[in-house]
Specification:
With 204 residues, the chain is of the alpha+beta class. The protein has a two-stranded antiparallel ribbon. A two-stranded antiparallel sheet has the order 3-4. Helices cover 36% and strands 13% of the residues.
């Protein structure tokens, strides 16, 4: 036996014959229900311009010590009555609060950019901080002065350092180059000739 399912409007009970014509109304807040409720209806059953509440304000009320807000649907006149400051109209108070909120947001974003920039700069410096006196980096081209540790390692392991530099495709250290010899302390000290003392036979 065939079974036919009919869709009807939750508002009028009329049959909905075309699924494409179905509209949904989600009841996000109702004083008698806690969960949202979805209603289906035909487009011609709802006149948005007529049912739209233009004189109401929707608020989220945060009670002290609570993180979850309570939704409030307030008539515009009742909302304006909340403002009792005689120096400012409700519109002026709202504009001032909005401007203050926007200024705080800009300040927060600038602070995040500054903190992010400082963190990135610190991380970059940490990445660039290389120990050139270590066996892995001694002899590599780098700005700044050559430390005594790097100079001593290059001097004592010149062949090993040049082999690594050659493998990495970098320039090698040439002891015959005066600049490199001076930079890494590779100059050979001149051999001082020993003073020859001529021995004379003892006088008779």
């Amino acid at each position: 036996m065939a079974r036919i399912t009919l869709r009807v409007s939750d508002l009028t009970g009329q049959e909905i014959t075309n699924d494409e014509e179905v509209v949904r109304l989600v009841v996000e807040y109702h004083p008698d229900y806690t969960d949202p409720i979805t209603l289906e209806a035909r487009p011609d059953e709802i006149d948005i311009d007529t049912i739209a509440a233009k004189d109401f304000v929707v608020l989220s009320y945060y009670a002290p010590g609570r993180k979850d807000p309570q939704p409030l649907f307030v008539h515009l006149d009742d909302f304006n009555d909340l403002f009792t400051n005689e120096q400012l109209t409700p519109d002026q108070a709202l504009q001032r609060a909005q401007q203050s909120q926007q200024a705080e947001e800009r300040t927060r974003r600038r602070g995040q950019r500054r903190r992010g920039g400082r963190q990135q700069e610190t991380q970059t410096r940490r990445r660039e901080r290389i120990d050139y006196s270590s066996p892995e980096h001694a002899g590599e081209p780098h700005p700044g002065r050559i430390t005594d540790g790097e100079r001593a390692y290059v001097r004592d392991h010149l062949d090993e350092v040049n082999a690594r530099l050659r493998q990495q495709g970098q320039r090698e250290i040439d002891p015959a180059d005066p600049t490199m010899a001076e930079r890494y302390g590779l100059r050979e000290e001149p051999i001082q000739e020993a003073e020859v003392i001529e021995e004379r036979p003892p006088e008779r």
